[in-house]
Amino acid sequence: MSQEIKEFGDYSLVCQLGVGRFGRVYEYIDRVTEKRVAIKFVSKYLISFGKPDFIPNEIKAYQFLGKHPNILEFYGYTELEEEGVFILEYFNGYSLQRVLYESRNHNKRPEVTNSLLKGYVLQLIDAVKFIHSHCIYHCDLRPENVLVNNSKIKIVDFGCALFGPSVFASSRQTLFSGSANFLPPEALSLSKDSEFLVLKPCVDVWAIGCLIFYMYIGELPFNGLHYEEALTQVRNLQVDFKGLPSFIKPICQSIFQADFYKRPNLEELEVIVMDMIPE
């Protein structure tokens, strides 16, 4: 990857915000308006090995979605010789993974209360409902792709997104490429086009279940350290519910079922969360 770019168009570099698998994100400030933005540089070389559709998927998802309070806003895209460059809303927060870890292990942050966690879950569900209403499916919901600032969350990174026929002329795209720890068993052994259409929303519902589990216990339900181990756990529904609060266990159990037709949809899940999780 190239070195830090001190001046990028109308923007001046403030600091680095984070580093991911395929690139890095910086905070920049507009020299005229003083508006802050996040600029993500994605390595074309790195994504060419495993996720060649990463950049076009993310562009298309952001272009079709428009604004939602819990989705990072998209301002534009441009390219450098070696990198794709996304100009995004600046959100002064950290990943859900970091916030929960520091809150529970290092006392660097105030305790994340049940009230806050319930708010995170409901915001997550609302954002995913909005995404699905545009026939877009995130397919990579995990703690690293949820940003948190106090009581508010933002979903980021649509590089693994899949799309319905109203977005793409063909509904058959590259199969699910998100993390195996967050994919339902049927997505790991996909065979028929008819299943594929049904599974797109199911993938995000399953991932929300994994995130709910993670928020309340600090561990993933399917926590295999390598790909094959995670696959085995997911396919066999090997989940240890010990330590999970009594009001969370039935929610996760309703999602972690082999038959995806028996799982709650987003609307049903929203009602369950509102009724079962205390403030």
From TrEMBL:
Nucleotide-binding is among the record's keywords: yes
Gene Ontology cellular component list: nucleus
This protein's UniProt keywords: ATP-binding, Kinase, Nucleotide-binding, Serine/threonine-protein kinase, Transferase
SUPFAM superfamilies per record: Protein kinase-like (PK-like)
Gene Ontology terms for molecular function: ATP binding; protein serine/threonine kinase activity
Residues engaged in binding ATP: K40
Superkingdom, taxonomy of origin: Eukaryota
InterPro entries: Kinase-like_dom_sf, Prot_kinase_dom, Protein_kinase_ATP_BS, Tyr_kinase_AS
Residue stretches making up the Protein kinase domain: 11-277
PANTHER family the record matches: CELL CYCLE SERINE_THREONINE-PROTEIN KINASE CDC5_MSD2, SERINE/THREONINE-PROTEIN KINASE PLK
The protein's name: Protein kinase
Biological classification of the source: Eukaryota, Fungi, Fungi incertae sedis, Microsporidia, Dubosqiidae
